[in-house]
Amino acid sequence: MGEEAAGADRDTAVAGGGDKTPRTERGRRTLRVLLDAAAVEFGERGFHDASISGITRRAGVALGSFYTYFDSKDAVFRALVTDMSAQVRDHVAPAVRAAPDGLAAERAGLAQFIGFVRDHKEIYRIIDEAEFVDADSFRRHYASTAERIEARLRAAAARGEVRGDVSDVHAWAVMGMNVFLGLRYGVWAEDRGIDDVADQAAALLRDGLAPRKG
Amino acid sequence: MGEEAAGADRDTAVAGGGDKTPRTERGRRTLRVLLDAAAVEFGERGFHDASISGITRRAGVALGSFYTYFDSKDAVFRALVTDMSAQVRDHVAPAVRAAPDGLAAERAGLAQFIGFVRDHKEIYRIIDEAEFVDADSFRRHYASTAERIEARLRAAAARGEVRGDVSDVHAWAVMGMNVFLGLRYGVWAEDRGIDDVADQAAALLRDGLAPRKG
């Protein structure tokens, strides 16, 4: 699934791989602070109303420092989408890897995802706005998430843990389920516990909706 | 599910229920032409770049006529989201009603939805942009869609056609699956046939991913 190399991937993606990749620990910390401030700024104000000075003010970083890391508002937004996509992946990965089998892994992934969303409610607004501000990042986020799910399902099928004919259709179905359960029970309201939602979704994924026999 | 009253609902919703509701057949036709033109204008240009004159030009309607139906660009966008939500519902409803049982109904609903999306690829862009332009319409679209799915699942459970413990969690899972399958196989690419996607999703909903026995 490639989660192992996530840290390195993320730095490269964030700064566009050019001269702006931070080389020191201090530089990486400043970049992290700027991205977290950008998440709040874009999440609260939306792309059009957000400003570079709003980001640096929230980050407590001099305006000039911003340009050490990013060329423009577009660049920091693009980096933020890639960063949030990587954050979700890295937050979910350990629980998925630790799960005893493929179906347990999907349940763990969903539970971790809803938990992450509750702590980062701005993620939907940011990734959804990417559809309009930076369509490539939007597409890459969902395409790569679906590819990871499909790879997990195919590996589980090879181990006999799920049906043998899993495909990209199943991966997109699982991703869609997760995205909307995260929106409803992570962002909109916390009227159900995470385990409750994850248990119901896991039972649906395992056995479907057909009436229980026996 | 209330689909029967869809036509009346839609007219009221479109014109905001006030003085602007068209009373004649000709008025309803002009409103329809304006909404179809608005779908193209907002779908191609996005909310910020779209203009009222762009809509009336596409509709072949005088600029002054626009104000017979809508007060502003915001008002026509809001009406368009409500209208597209109703169009999806009305397009899906007959096949859902004609299905022999609850699980067949969900399969039919998904197949109809993907077909609708292929003919109206702009629907995702418009409903997704509502999250930023008109958050209430965005929320209403998904909340009401989930409520319809939940009502269908509960009715099917009462008839013994699906497991007895269906809930809002299942409804949101089914909706999320449908939305993402529509995005991937309706908007992004048509590399799988509608029946192929619907059959795989229906098998997932019916029996889950657990390995087949026997």
Describe this protein's structure:
Chains A, B: Keywords: DNA-binding, Transcription, Transcription regulation. Chains A, B: Residues 28-88 form the HTH tetR-type domain. The structure is a homodimer of 214-residue chains. Chain A has 214 residues and is mostly helical. Helix content of chain A is 77%, strand content 0%. The first copy, chain A, has one domain (3-207): Tetracycline Repressor, domain 2, CATH 1.10.357.10. Chain A is elongated. The longest helix of chain A has 26 residues, at 73-98. Mean pLDDT of chain A is 91; it is low at 1-17. Chains A and B meet through helix 7, helix 8, helix 9 and helix 10 of A and helix 7, helix 8, helix 9 and helix 10 of B.
